Amino acid sequence: MATDAQDTGLPPNPLLAGISTERRAPPLALVVFGASGDLASRKLLPALERLASRRQLPAAFAVVGVARTEMTDEEFRDMCRKAVPDAGPSWEGLVKGFRYVSGEYASAPTFERLAQVLEEVDQARGTGGNRVHYLATVPGVFAEVAESLARHGLNKPSHEGAFVRIVVEKPYGRDLASALELDDRLHKVFDEPQLYRIDHYLGKETVQNVLALRFANAIFEPVWDRRYVDHVQITVAEELGVGHRGGFYESAGALRDIVQNHVLQVLALTLVEPPATIDAKGIRDEKVKALRAVEIMTPDEVATNVVRGQYGPGWVEGEPVPGYRDEEGVAPDSSTETYVGMRLRVDNWRWAGVPFYVRTGKRLPKRVTEVAMQFREVPHLPFQKGQARGLGPNTLVLRIQPDEGITLRFGAKVPGQEFRVRSVSMDFSYGAAFLEEAPEAYERLLLDAMVGDPTLFIRADEVEQAWRIVEPLLEVWAEGRPPLVPYAAGTWGPPEADGLLAWDGHRWRTP
Amino acid sequence: MADALAVADHPLSVWEGDGVTISEVTGALVRLRRGQPETATRTSSVTLVVVGVDEDEATAATNAMHRLGARHPGRTLVLVPDPDAERGIDARVALHHTEAEGHAVWSEDIRLRVRGPAARHLDSLIEPLTLPDLPLCVWFVASAPALHDPLVAVADAVLVDLRQIPGAAGDPAPALISLTRLAAERSLVDLSWVRLMPWRELLAGMFDPAPYRPFLDGVHAVEVCGLPGPRHLLGGWIASQLRLPSFAVQLRQEDHVSVVIAATADGRSGRFSVERRAGEHLVRARAEADGAPAHELVLALPTDTLPWSLGAALSRPYRDPVYEESLAAAVLLARR
């Protein structure tokens, strides 16, 4: 984290000595595009309120909301108050200084007004010309907003020492070509170091814990490779259906919505080599290297190594639920996948020959995200057959949600006169070790963007590499191969997905 | 802050004995844990030894630790020395089970009344009862230990509370001096200093906005109100960090802590204040200056300060150079 003086270009504040250990945002105005929308009320404003009550926002702070909806400053402030009904006393003091600009994202008057309001905010709140623009709009207007900002000189700092950054929500493109085009347009008006592409999965404490587990301990890393690992299973399961997001989901599907970003980020953190430093360059360089090692499938390989499914009606947690095609906003003959299972190969020294099985889906039996490493069997089992009947392979499970922690499965002797061994699980729960209130993902990432730490944001080359991995699937699916297969809601996906593992003599875990 | 600590807490089982040995105490601990039907994995982060207390203070300290159980799970060892009584050790061992956000967390507390000469050799009792490989924090609830105190020698961190040190409420200078000596040698965390954090953060934050930053170089008068001890620390902090002569800092007796700073920059004058009003659990900060808009920030204070300050102290049981500088300056303020 940069020091206070570097951040703001102001003389240092000696009273902050010994206090700044808890991260704290420098003076700035946060410009939220799409401020009247769902993301702002549901995630951004509550995250800001928590940052304020944890004293991580400065006095010189303001939100400027921008959206098409007509609203006055006071109406916007009311919206901010309603978004956080149980706000602490510090919230009201901040909200009083919030401003709102309504207008079209392509129209000059909107941005002329925004420039004027930002100047007023600098005067009134002392935000010193520092800005973080947050694109919480529909993805279709990301580039348009960025270009409008540039036309009005809002893409560059107005003086030395000030900063301007832009946070871009997902989805980042619909495929490789559109992602590259978006990058191209953004790079014309913002430099890469100003761009903060968000994947809120990386803001989750337990995703970051994958790095802590691997690189803060001496005992895991030596067995973290092809010599000891038999295969790896990554599961990102949701019990929910698409709900009211049917319209959006129809144009996205599980591959774009979850695999291209969340799943591949979790995979990358599992694969990475130890970085020299856990900072923006160190960790992101390694992630790109890891993603480059993931083998790009040929069309024929897509047909045999990927299963796409769609949920039909079924029962989830004791309730009957409709099938995907019966959901609101979904076409009755929809071919959008709600499940993706795939078998990936990673071509590098560490992982050659180790299959990575990945699955994600909606309406699976429960909400769970985990990475499970199954280890090879011991070279020789010195017990008689019957003695080790209950013994399975060693497994290390990194549980990312909901019950964050680590499970290690190993063999132990069953107490008694006989010599029998069976598998037992040892559970470690992060929640039981640290009940420090972990910051919610958006809280963490908002503060990172304000402080100027891009470590947990996605760099251009990462996005590109992630699209390269899923691109062949999009192409082959467009030809209707392999067929979309149904699965009953509340099951672990289509039976065809079992075949992906059966091929190698493995089975999906039941998380 | 307070919400994180709002957890259900049940003492699960208790063992008591008078005139016991330490191995009976450790045996009881093992038996109590084994007797539980649920076998939660124990996760511990600290051994906290609480010394220099009477029975009431011991109860307050263990209650505070139970409130913290989920955040700093571990073992609490409360030592109640009674050197004039007949030789012997009376013990009470309790196993606690805390439910917090669906997680079961186990912690133990051991209270020993140490009678007779052993009361002067408390360090000899600690070793068998500390959790292996974890930091040992020793909390002197109502005293400032001498540097050569054997408990100080075994501690990874020493916790004190300036406000509670006998005599500090009248003339805080002797207490400040002994803490200065101690802080130079050991990791010392002063709960009085921890409790001042909201004031420090807000005051520092008032100078964050660009128009106010230049006033930091033009501070000419500071008034700090509060009880003896805390107000000296706060005054010492401002004087040492802003390199002010001690005559620029005035201290005044009040029940609640407040600070007012008068400063000038480029011919403009500014006023910066942080105060807690009577009857409010809030700290309010305000900055105003000629030609600049006024700024206000409000912070809620934790309602239960002991678990909060103890938790904050256990989270950072390290030496704090800013505290050491503030102590040194506070001595000067107290000696005037």
Description:
The complex is a heterodimer of chains A (511) and B (336). Chain A has 511 residues and is an alpha/beta fold. Chain A has 15 helices and 17 strands. The longest helix of chain A has 26 residues, at 246-271. In chain A, 47% of the residues are buried. Chain B has 336 residues and is α/β, with parallel strands linked by helices. In chain B, helix 2 (55-68) crosses helix 9 (305-315) and helix 5 runs antiparallel to helix 10. The longest helix of chain B has 15 residues, at 321-335. Chain B is elongated and about 75 Å long. The model of chain B is unreliable at 1-8 (pLDDT under 50). Classes of the chains: A alpha/beta (511), B alpha/beta (336). Chains A and B meet through helix 4, helix 5, strand 16 and helix 12 of A and strand 5, helix 7, strand 13, strand 14 and helix 10 of B.
Question: How many β-strands of chain B, per DSSP?
Answer: 14
* Inertia-based shape of chain A: globular
Structural class of chain B: alpha/beta
Tell me, rounded to a whole number, the average pLDDT of chain B. 86
* N-to-C SSE string of chain B, H for helix and E for strand: EHEHEEEHEHEHEHHEHEEEEEHH
Percent helix of chain B, as a range, is 25-40%
Q: What is the overall pLDDT average of chain A?
A: 90
Largest two-chain interface: A-B, 41 and 55 residues
Q: How many helix segments of chain B?
A: 10
| Number of E-state strands of chain A | 17
Order of strands in the sheet with the most strands of chain B?
1-4-5-3-2-6-7-8
Share in β-strands of chain A: 15-25%
Distance between termini of chain A? 37 Å
Model regions low in confidence, pLDDT < 50 over at least 5 residues of chain A: 1-7
Largest sheet of chain A: 9 strands, mixed
Give the radius of gyration of chain A.
25 Å
The end-to-end distance of chain B, rounded to whole angstroms, is 38 Å
Briefly say what this structure is.
Chain A is of the alpha/beta class and 511 residues long. Chain A is built from 15 helices and 17 strands. The longest helix of chain A is centred in the middle third of the chain and has 26 residues, at 246-271.
